Amino acid sequence: MARITSSVYTSHVPAIGAAIDLGKTQEPYWQPVFKGYEYSKKWLEQEKPDVIFLVYNDHATAFSLEVIPTFAIGTAESFKPADEGWGPRPVPMVTGHAELASHISHSVIQDDFDLTIVNKMDVDHGLTVPLSLMCGQPKEWPCPVIPFAVNVVQYPVPSGKRCFELGRAIGRAIRSFPEDLNVQIWGTGGMSHQLQGPRAGLINKEFDNMFLDRLIADPKGLANVPHIDYVREAGSEGIELVMWLIARGAMNDIEGGHAPEVKHRFYHVPASNTAVGHLILENK
């Protein structure tokens, strides 16, 4: 049977992708950010996942305001890097895993969660920046990736509790897949940031680190944090953190297993106008 071996959590700041693409990673401003991922890149090389299930949000690239799916799973064989207005990022094509994605879709919908099935879409920085942070600049990504897009851009957006319970359903779906696969589930976005209005530039270190603490030790309690708390404490774009709860909900301890091991934790301010958070948890 397939197994979820670990979960990875990281910000997906678009300026990070630009710094990588333009060769600026060793500049004084950016060096501390990329230093925080040096361990992670070596760890990923050792772990050799067969599939990455990557939770992210589309930034009005694959989906316009005409059609806004709350949860959308990519079931195609491959996904092109999107042109977000300045050309596609110079990164490899993303290879999908249609068979596992279709199995997850069937299982999760039968588990009473509504998903939008997407057989063709381009993937933007929300998905490619995490891959670049963890993989560097390879000629091809190390394994297939299943994109899972969550609407945290246009209200109404899903609650943390809904995301957490969806993660549990995704975890059950993956573990019921009959092929022997090493699957990682990644939650991306956040941390605290606001891009517009009087509070533009807001970063809340205390909230961010509280979130990381509770994500590790009290995920069920964290899932009950209401939307207004994210907006008030973490800024309007801080709501992206609910996507981390999908990845956390899929871990073994939520279904009665052992608590995961914290392999790596990193936090840095700022990268562009955003706090960068990163965490790796391994199932035991």
Structure description:
- The protein has 284 residues and is of the alpha/beta class.
- The chain has a single domain, classed as Protocatechuate 4,5-dioxygenase, Chain B (3-Layer(aba) Sandwich), CATH 3.40.830.
- Helices cover 34% and strands 20% of the residues.
- It is built from ten helices and ten strands.
- It has helices at residues 14-21, 31-35, 38-47, 98-110, 125-135, 160-175, 205-217, 219-222, 227-234, 242-249; strands spanning 3-10, 51-56, 71-74, 78-79, 94-95, 116-118, 145-150, 182-188, 261-271, 274-282.
- Helix 4 packs across helix 6 (160-175) and helix 6 (160-175) packs parallel to helix 10 (242-249).
- The longest helix is centred in the middle third of the chain and has 16 residues, at 160-175.
- The two termini are 16 Å apart.
- The mean pLDDT is 97.
Defining traits:
284 residues; alpha/beta; Protocatechuate 4,5-dioxygenase, Chain B; eight-stranded mixed sheet; two-stranded antiparallel ribbon; 10 helices; globular
Q: Main sheet: which strands, in order across?
A: 6-3-7-2-8-1-10-9
Q: Number of domains in the coordinates?
A: 1
The proportion of residues forming helix, as a percent range, comes to: 25-40%
Mean pLDDT: 97
Low-confidence sequence ranges: none
Distance between the termini: 16 Å
| Strand residue content | 15-25%
Secondary structure: elements and pairs:
Layout: E1 3-10, H1 14-21, H2 31-35, H3 38-47, E2 51-56, E3 71-74, E4 78-79, E5 94-95, H4 98-110, E6 116-118, H5 125-135, E7 145-150, H6 160-175, E8 182-188, H7 205-217, H8 219-222, H9 227-234, H10 242-249, E9 261-271, E10 274-282
Parallel strand pairs: 1-8, 2-7, 2-8, 3-6
Antiparallel strand pairs: 1-10, 3-7, 4-5, 9-10
